[in-house]
Amino acid sequence: MADNYDDYSKEQLLRLLRERDRRPQFGLVWERDEIAHDLSVNSDFVAMDQDLGLSCGQGAQTNLIIEADNFDALRYLRMTHAGRIKCIYIDPPYNTGNRDFIYNDRFVDKDDAYRHSKWLEFMFRRLELAKELLTKDGVIFVSIDDNEVFHLGLLMEQIFGPENFVANIIWQKRTSPDSRIELGPAHDYIIVFSLHKSQTSFNKLGLNNKQADSYKNPDKDPRGLWSSADFTAQGYRPNQMYEITTPGGKVLTPPPGRCWANLQSVFETLVADKKIWFGKDGNARPRVKNFLAEAKGVSSWTWWSNDEVGHNQEAKREILEILGGGVSEIFSTPKPVRLIDRIVRVATNPGDIVLDFFAGSGTTAQAVLNLNREDGGNRQFILVSNTEATADAPDKNLCRDVCAERVRRVIEGYTNKKGEAVAGLGSGFAYLRARRISAASVFRRIQHEQVWTALQLIHGVPLSLFDKAASLHVATAKRGLVLYVTQVNDAVIDALSLSVHSADQAIVYAWQPALLAQRLVDPRLSFEAIPAFLVERFGARAKVTTGGRA
């Protein structure tokens, strides 16, 4: 019997509420107070420097490769791309205990009492930021294995909400059993969540050769090849239990436990349109004809076999083909292009942005470029990778030497290990390098180049280099002109007036916006202060919390 709370004093009710708040609730809890603070979590402002020498392609670029700790990169992308990423795919460290996961510059081994808590804290910080980047219909795919799959599922449920769980895909990563293990793992998982499941939809896949071969034309229908589907449905619906007389005169009723797939009026329309097949003798149970010419593909399911999407060994061969020997040993669990192709294919359309902030060897970029070549789309990729330099290897730079180099060769073409020339896919990318600036010194230390890079990305403008000789920079965005003024003088005022003469609207970013507003009175113009606009949008002064429940 429930307590009668009406008889409780205020003090008793407060005590009861405090006890209830302290009581663990259903969900994932980890020892955030007991583990060392994640040193990558900081409150600094992040700026980006563009490295022309490491970039690829001519002119302004829409694709990005970012050399940075992904926590810093995600905070920067929250400033520039919040709500604009359609698909995120990541392949984070699996926390196997075999020197694959680094927390605070040290590998986490199997004997670490807080091994799982450190991994969860690391992932929580990044997934929270990633969520803010997704479009309303956006979706995130996360590869994982048995070591953390159960924890990751609960963590993502906590961040994205259980109602936004989409699927747990099983990917067959091996081609044969591991003879050293009695029950060897043959698969990994890809956990899928959306920002708003009700607004998310997935594309159908094209028919493979086996599926296409199933289309025949035994009745020589002028509409071409067709396959058929059973015209029954599971269950009992009174208005779908009618009798059907076949062309051969046989009277049929639905089989036990089933009913006809649709109303009698719909069935008669299909018969009149010659879309019902009763078999060669005209007495078989009715089936609905689906024509190859009208086929829109097939829906994907959660079993992704290696013959359809590749396996680990295929992925290693791909790296070797493009970059040569030695590189494949860096990645213990590489992903094949066909696997990422499947993700990009079902989750994106031309013009969408794909993000991978554990970019590894750059497979995601290759999958995006392949699909763009196939369907003429203009999907964009953003890859984030770190140097992974250590005290023993201070010059190590996986982002520069592996990730960016692979993508560059895929774009420009390369010679494989057989000495054969492989044509490039075209396109390009801007190579960006993150630079932390303390929140207190942003106004003194941020550079004009960094400001212009951020403004272009915020407004979705292809990224071009900053011209140090110019005092006025102009770009055309979807909603009008974007202008950045580095200094105010009469010549700049005249140039600015000329630039906006035929524009419907323009936004002017300047270090002295009030002075410009006094001299340029025009209802089409709006003004923003730099760097205050960027600092506020970035949230550099926001408090970074530590400890407590997620």
What does this entry look like structurally?
It is a single chain. With 550 residues, the protein is α/β, with parallel strands linked by helices. It has 16 helices and 25 strands. The strands form 7 sheets. Strands 1-21-2-18-17-3-6-8-7-16 form a 10-stranded mixed beta sheet, sandwiched between helices. A hairpin with a 2-residue loop joins β22 and β23. α10 runs parallel beside α11 (398-412). The longest helix has 19 residues, at 115-133. Residues 540-550 have low confidence and may be disordered.
Key descriptive features of the protein:
25 strands, single chain, globular, alpha/beta, 30% helix, 550 residues, Rossmann fold
Summarize the structure.
By secondary structure, the chain is α/β, with parallel strands linked by helices.
Protein topology:
Layout: H1 10-22, E1 45-50, E2 64-67, H2 70-81, E3 85-90, E4 102-103, E5 106-107, H3 115-133, E6 134-144, H4 149-160, E7 165-172, E8 187-194, H5 209-213, E9 226-230, E10 232-234, E11 244-245, E12 251-252, E13 258-260, H6 264-272, E14 276-277, E15 287-291, E16 303-304, H7 306-309, H8 312-323, H9 337-347, E17 353-356, H10 363-375, E18 380-385, H11 398-412, E19 413-415, E20 421-423, E21 430-437, H12 442-445, H13 448-458, E22 472-477, E23 480-485, H14 490-499, E24 506-510, H15 513-519, E25 525-529, H16 532-538
Parallel strand pairs: 2-18, 2-21, 3-6, 3-17, 7-16, 17-18, 23-24, 24-25
Antiparallel strand pairs: 1-21, 4-5, 6-8, 7-8, 9-15, 10-13, 11-12, 14-15, 19-20, 22-23
Helix pairs in contact: 2-3, 3-4, 9-10, 10-11
